[in-house]
Amino acid sequence: MKYTGELAALGTATFFAIGTNLFTGAARRMGSVVLNRLRTAIGLVLLSTTLWLVHGAPWPVWATPAQVTLLALSGLVGFAFGDGWGFRSMVVLGAGRAALLSSTAPLFTVAIAWPVLGERPGPLTLLGMALTLGGIAIVLSQRDRVSGADAPAPPNPPDPALAAAPARVGHGEGSVIMGIVAGLLAGLGQAGGSVLSKLALRTGIDALSATVIRLGAAVIAIWGMAFLARDVRRSLAPLADRRTTALITGGSACGPLLGVTLSLVSLQYIPAGVAASITAFYPVLAILIASRFHGERLTPAILLGTLIAVAGVVVLFLR
């Protein structure tokens, strides 16, 4: 079907936008580290169940050692490293600023994919990327300026006994500078994970099986570190709250299950830099969703940035 890759990337952006709204609420209840542990574990359960229903096995035993190796590395770089830093940036800076930093992922992707995959971007691709990322930058900067709704919040409910304590500069998970560094590392990790995934997809493995392997490797690494740190019980504690569990499960269904699988489908059909640029549109969609369900105000500048970003996506479709 025409535009299969582009539509899959746009679907990825849509599900990531929904997942971001769900994960933001959960992250501030438990912190970024615990959230990343729980959402990868729940995501793997959902993916393995889907794979079992579709292919008759919860794990892709048909994958070759080379495919497993590439996809496991992709999962470690993308999920364990990239998303781990991404959630930390989100908790420190807020979802909007963190998304703005992680939108550097297409730039990193193009820089890596050019020598590794031989994907040289043409003039229309570069124009589409510039429009998309420029529109995203306008939307996110204006949203933070006019609403103040994205200011950093503590990962856990404040202790009433500390309410009268003097305010301190910084954040429970690091300073603002640490949040910026974390956001850039997230973009680099997402780019590296995408390129490694495309190398594996070129060998013929399907997107669903590839996603299970990627997430499985990330779960082993993330929960292995939690076990060594004797932090498993604390990581599981948030599941005792039904609202938190619902937020994480919903976000995991949108992110690791639907979003990530569609992102691999897009990589099968279009260059990695194009897929990453269309997917990077998700913060704009996340803000539009937040304006509908959380009452965040849309200004003319935000709408202008949205139109510019949409124009960029259209160029990437028609390049």
Q: For the terminal residues, how far apart are their CA atoms?
A: 17 Å
**How large is the share of residues in beta strands?**
under 5%
Estimated radius of gyration = 19 Å
The computed structural class is: mainly alpha
Task: State the helical fraction.
Answer: over 70%
Rounded mean pLDDT score: 84
Largest sheet: none
Which H/E pattern describes the elements?
HHHHHHHHHHHHH
**Morphology:** globular
**What is the tally of helical segments?**
13
Number of strands: 0
Uncertain segments are 147-171
Fold blueprint:
Layout: H1 4-30, H2 32-55, H3 65-93, H4 95-102, H5 105-117, H6 123-147, H7 176-201, H8 207-228, H9 232-236, H10 242-269, H11 272-279, H12 282-293, H13 300-318
Q: What does this protein look like?
A:
The chain is mainly α and 319 residues long. Helices cover 77% and strands 0% of the residues. The protein contains 13 helices and no strands. The protein has helices spanning 4-30, 32-55, 65-93, 95-102, 105-117, 123-147, 176-201, 207-228, 232-236, 242-269, 272-279, 282-293, 300-318. Helix 1 (4-30) crosses helix 11 (272-279), helix 4 (95-102) packs across helix 7 and helix 6 runs antiparallel to helix 13 (300-318). It is globular. It starts with a helix and ends with a helix. Residues 147-171 have low confidence and may be disordered.
